[in-house]
Every structure is written in structure tokens, then in C-alpha cells.
Design goal:
With about 150 residues, this protein is an alpha+beta fold. It has a seven-stranded antiparallel β-sheet with strand order 1-8-9-2-7-5-4. Strands 3-6 form a two-stranded antiparallel sheet. The chain has four helices and nine strands. β8 and β9 form a beta hairpin. The protein is about 35% helix and about 35% strand.
Length: about 150
């Protein structure tokens, strides 16, 4: 599967424990697609929320291109509808409402058919000590790999 990466939410892996991943389509306007081809997007502080039974990507920043007419362009942080199957939407709504989980976007990309997709994840929030433990494990793993490399 060849994907063309547009934006990545690195903060999500630090702040949340990923439980399950999903792939969703994004409803966009033409000027937004052009901006995404120029990689003018940011997923930091973005999240997903159910509004009237539909899943929406909130607070994701898609910048305007200079060639776009300002009169017809959308707000850069407006909610964008996500396209999922009904069973997936029901499953996510159940997990979010009952278990208190969060839905966060991980990466925004073009798939092999040039459709804009977003990889979203059902996630649990980490506590501060969990974040420290993860950083400690990553550092130990990186140091061990470096020591193995230098030993050879």
C-alpha cells in the first residue's frame, strides 16, 4: 500500500495509549485538496467528535493557498466530516460514550487512489507517570541499539 503522507500527529502517541485504529475518508472542498497536495496541514491539537450522529474532525488546520479566492475559502479550522461505515461509527460511539475513550487523528494522507484519508485511533489518555515510563523505555531501547551498533 503506497501512501503519500501529508501530516502526522506525533503528540497523539505521547499523550494517548492507542487501543484500535480505523481509516476514514474526509469530506473536503477543492481548494482544501490543493492545499493538502502542497502539504499545508497540521494535526496537532486535533480531535474527533460526534455531532448529530456523524463523526467530525475538529481543530485540524488546513491552510489556504495563495492562489485560492478568499471569498470562497473555508475557515482553516472548521469541522470536517469523516466517512466511516455505520458499524464502525456505532462501535466508536459506544466505546466513547461508555468507556470514556477519545478518538484522535494519527496521520493524514493520500491513498493509492489519490483520496484523502485520515487514520484515526480509539485511545485512552495517559497519566504523567505513564508518559515518563514510555520515554524512559524509548531511551533505554535507543541506547541499547546504539551500544549494539558500536559493539560490531
Amino acid at each position: 500500500m503506497a501512501i503519500n503522507l501529508i501530516a502526522k500527529n506525533k503528540k497523539a502517541y505521547h499523550d494517548y495509549e492507542i487501543v484500535e485504529k480505523f481509516e476514514a475518508g474526509v469530506v473536503l472542498q477543492g481548494s482544501e485538496v490543493k492545499a493538502l497536495r502542497a502539504k499545508r496541514a497540521n494535526l496537532n491539537d486535533a480531535f474527533c467528535r460526534f455531532i448529530k450522529g456523524e463523526l467530525n474532525l475538529m481543530n485540524a488546520h488546513i491552510a489556504h493557498l495563495e492562489t485560492t479566492n478568499r471569498n470562497y475559502s473555508r475557515d482553516t479550522r472548521s469541522p470536517r466530516k469523516l466517512l466511516l461505515h455505520k458499524k464502525e461509527l456505532d462501535k466508536l460511539f459506544d466505546k466513547v460514550s461508555r468507556d470514556g475513550n477519545t478518538i484522535v487523528p494519527l496521520i493524514l494522507y493520500f491513498n493509492e487512489r489519490n483520496f484523502v484519508k485520515v487514520s484515526i485511533a480509539l485511545a485512552k489518555g495517559k497519566n504523567l507517570h505513564d508518559k515518563r515510563e514510555t520515554l524512559k523505555r524509548r531511551t533505554q531501547h535507543r541506547e541499547a541499539q546504539q551500544a549494539m551498533k558500536n559493539y560490531r
